[in-house]
Design goal:
Elements (H helix, E strand, L loop, with lengths): L6 E5 L2 E3 L2 E3 L6 H4 L2 E9 L5 E8 L2 E9 L1 E6 L3 E5 L4 E5 L4 E8 L5 E9 L12 E5 L6 E3 L3 E7 L1 E2 L2 E2 L8 E8 L4 E4 L7 E8 L2 E3 L2 E3 L4 E4 L6 E5 L4 E8 L7 E2 L4 E2 L2 H16 L7
Antiparallel strand pairs: 1-22, 2-3, 3-4, 4-11, 5-10, 6-9, 6-11, 7-8, 7-10, 9-12, 13-14, 14-17, 15-16, 17-24, 18-23, 19-22, 19-24, 20-21, 20-23, 25-26
């Protein structure tokens, strides 16, 4: 059997309020093209709202597990993102949006992933797009020990309905106890991470506990995850690293300062005229 892809770094994240963030700027060289991973959890009955703010140069993926997200943006779109749905916002040359998280039975939980857009083929500065995908449209691949939900990309011969601007695979996996899950990403998908939501798992002799993120070594080797005496749920993301600088001003990520400045001008204009957005 081919040797498993090892983990090279395990992170606990930094918690601010209800949000725990896992990818600081200084790790971009390891995580490229992933530039943000956040886990939002709240056990309060109140709504959580963010007013209009802007992003550019990234594809932002929102995946609520519990509760609902009401999302407005300048494309202009209004989406109600229910538990299990996936919303993908391609920010490109600049977009503004606001959102409200509405709890279900006083619980809200969601994941958000940002992937830097490739500078090639004008993807980085493309026209913004906002899309919602219903939970019932994602393939579920079941075997005796696991269920894999294909959020983005291809897993074995099955494809997600989402067509990302990035060469990305995003999977949600549930495993039984004392079992093993294998996946060999395409050869160019050298950047991969795992995030453990529940249970305890091992990967290449590294132990992961809930709310830990592990970055895999850049390799073409398979990913192997093994559970212990309890079932587990985790997210696996794999992508092709970008051959470009990743420059950020916290809200946006671009390949050069010129694109950062252009996009910020667009965002400022959108914010100035946000009162004209009709929903």
């Amino acid at each position: 059997m081919q040797k498993s892809r090892p983990l090279i770094h395990i992170r606990h994240g930094i918690k601010q309020g209800a949000t725990t963030s896992f990818i600081p700027e200084q790790y971009f060289s390891i995580t490229n093209p992933f530039v943000l991973w956040e886990h939002f959890t709240s056990k309060k009955s109140t709504n959580h709202s963010l007013d209009f703010h802007g992003h550019s140069g990234v594809e932002a993926i929102s995946y609520p597990l519990k509760g609902t997200i009401s999302h407005y943006d300048s494309t202009p779109q209004h989406h109600i993102i229910n538990s299990g749905d996936v919303h993908i916002m391609t920010s490109g040359q600049g977009i503004i949006h606001k959102s409200t998280t509405l709890p279900r039975q006083s619980v809200s939980e969601s994941f958000q992933l940002w992937v830097a857009l490739p500078a090639s083929n004008k993807n980085e500065m493309c026209k913004p797009k906002s899309q919602l995908f219903n939970k019932n449209n994602f393939p579920l691949i079941e075997n005796n020990n696991s269920t894999t939900k294909i959020l983005i990309g291809r897993y074995h011969q099955y494809d997600s309905p989402i067509k990302s601007h990035c060469e990305l695979i995003l999977l949600d996996i549930i495993m039984t106890s004392y079992s093993t899950w294998y996946f060999t990403p395409p050869k160019q998908h050298l950047s991969c991470f795992i995030y453990l939501k529940s249970g305890v798992v091992y990967s290449a002799n590294n132990k992961l506990t809930p709310s830990q993120m592990g970055f895999f070594k850049s390799s073409s080797s398979p990913i192997t995850i093994t559970t212990t005496n309890q079932s587990s749920r985790f997210i696996v993301a794999c992508a092709v690293p970008l051959k470009q600088p990743l420059i950020t001003n916290k809200d946006s990520v671009h390949s050069c300062e010129n694109n950062i400045n252009k996009s910020q001008t667009t965002i400022n204009e959108l914010l100035l005229n946000s009162h004209n957005l009709n929903y």
